[in-house]
Structure formats: structure tokens, C-alpha cells
Amino acid sequence: MELLLPLFFFFFGLLLSFPSFLLAASPFPFSHHHLRLAGSIRSAGAGAALAESKRYEGSSDLVNLRYHMGPVLSSPINLYLVWYGPWTAAQQAPLRDFLLSLSDPSTPPPSVAQWWSTVALYPDQTGANVSRRVAVAAEASLPHLPRGASLTRLSIQLVIADALAARSLPVDHGRGAYIVLTAPGVAVQDFCRAACGFHYFTFPSLVGHTLPYAWVGHSGKQCPDVCAYPFAVPTYMAGSVGAMSPPNGDVGVDGMVSVLAHEMAELSTNPLINAWYAGEDPTAPTEIADLCEGVYGTGGGGGYTGQVSKDEMGRSYNLNGRNGRKFLVQWIWSPIAKACRGPNAMD
Hints:
This protein starts with a helix and ends in a 6-residue tail after the last strand. The protein is globular, with a radius of gyration of 18 Å. Residues about 1-20 and about 30-60 have low confidence and may be disordered. The strands form six sheets. Strands 1-8-9-6-3-4 form a six-stranded mixed β-sheet, sandwiched between helices. The protein has helices at about 5-15, 30-35, 40, 45-50, 90-100, 110-120, 155-165, 205, 225, 250-270, and strands at about 25, 65, 75-85, 135-140, 150, 175-180, 185-190, 195-200, 210-215, 275-280, 310, 315, 320, 325, 330-335, 340. The protein has ten helices and 16 strands.
């Protein structure tokens, strides 16, 4: 569904005024720093009070997560991946396997598909829930950086436009969601400072269509202590908290997996920024993954990940995926339990 032009120019003007308008996975454990950086956006009204108090695992009646009558991704979801910059097959494989695991019921518990089942609890006004069927429908590779090695938030949309114009990817209204994954060394506006990933929808003036999309960056060379936590920890925490060993052996890629999960959950439940979120300001919503940022297991919160498992090599994980993969992925807010939940919960 295309935006009406007056509505588009309203949102476009807001975007230019507020660089942090796009909905972002904030750098954990630097989220309070992120709130200060995004001052006029994140500190407004009830949204700020909620953001300041969201580090917990238990249930809470204080979280006013509400439905705002917009669509969720209720049709089977077709993911279209854009690999921007030089990627190796070894780097791509865990990310692709995670996405393919979202709808794979054959993996042993606790599984990625069980984690996604919490996302699928969220309905739209017709009673249709977020789809449990997620497929990687097509992929495009742009290894030569056609938009340069330093991207703005708006130029992420131009990367998608380039892939559509080249017919590397189709225009898929209704079922499509577009994921831009930037390679190690690619700089993105606010990356490492105020965001590790974000989601929004494309503008017709830039892309020709209104399509839900997300961006996630590889932080391995730029800021692993910011965007790949808990596989790297900031200096001020080094004496009290040790870094966990990444389950797929790549700090940057394993850090991306949890950010990608965060964005997928929110993209699916709030694709046009008018569906599921807490707070009164749609330009600063607290979404279902924001509420549980940094929580990976029972007892998590306050900088503690919670109880997670380790494999025979000492690598930390909380979910099983396809091809024998293991992942460490943050929990998300359950509208039934009214708490942060994951399939590896001990209770």
C-alpha cells in the first residue's frame, strides 16, 4: 500500500529533523548512553520512563504495550537479503541459517522456531497473527560498494532501490521484507554510536514503493564491544564481566545474529510503525524486542545475560538452529506472559 503524499512528506520532514527517527536496536550495554544521544526522540514522555525501566525478565503490569491498528506481517514472509560489501561464504552462512531456522520445526528445543512462535502471538485488527512461515526468497550481492563505503540512513534505502532496479530482487508487496546486511568495514550513519541495526519502511520518492526493511551491520572491526555484546565487553566492564565465546566462532557475525533477531521481531510486529509498541509517541516507540534487550535467559537483566548453555567447546548459546547451528539470541516480550520470554526459560 503506497503512502499518501502528504503523509510521506510529513514523515520525510521528521526524518530529516531527527536522524535517529528510524527504529533502532540500541548498542547494549550502552543503551542509556543511546537515550542521551537521541535526546529529543528517546527521552520524550512515557516512552523514556519505560525505556529507563525495561531491564528485567519478570512480568510487569507497568508495560503498556498496545496495538495501534496497523498491519503486522501476517502473510507468509518472503525475506530479500542484500549483502552490501565483500562477504565470505563462511560469514554469510550463520546469518542465513538463522533466518532459515525461523520456520524449521525439525531443530531440537530450545529452537529458533520456538523463539519465533512468541513473535507469532501478535495479531492485527483482523485477528491474523504474524506468520510462522518465513522464507529467504532471494538474495542480492553488492560486493563493490556501489553507494560507497560510508552509508547514511537514507542511502540504505537507495541500496534497496539499486537491487530492485537491477532486478536482482523483485518488488514484493504484501509478503516481502528487505534486509540490508553491511559487511565488515562498511560505515553507516550512527552505527556503533546510537544503533547496531534499525527497521523502517521505504519511501516511494526514493525506492518507488513502500516496503518494510531492516539494516544490520557487522561490528567486528568497528565496535564489537558495543554491538556484539556479550561476545565482547566494553573496557569499563572487563574486570567484572567476561566476554562469552561466540557459538559460530565469529564475534561480528554472532553479534549480528541477535541484532538481526531483534529487528526481525519488530519489523514483523510493527512494519509501518503503527502496530505493536509501547509509549505514546510513534516516533519513539518501545517495541517488543526493546523491552528485553540484553536478556538471554532466566534471571537476565541489569547487565546479566541470564542462564544460557555452553557446548563442549565452551561456546555460549540459547537456541538451536538448522545444520546443527547454535545461536545466542535475546528474548522478546510475550503478550501472553506479559514478560520477556524465550524457549530456554528455566521455568
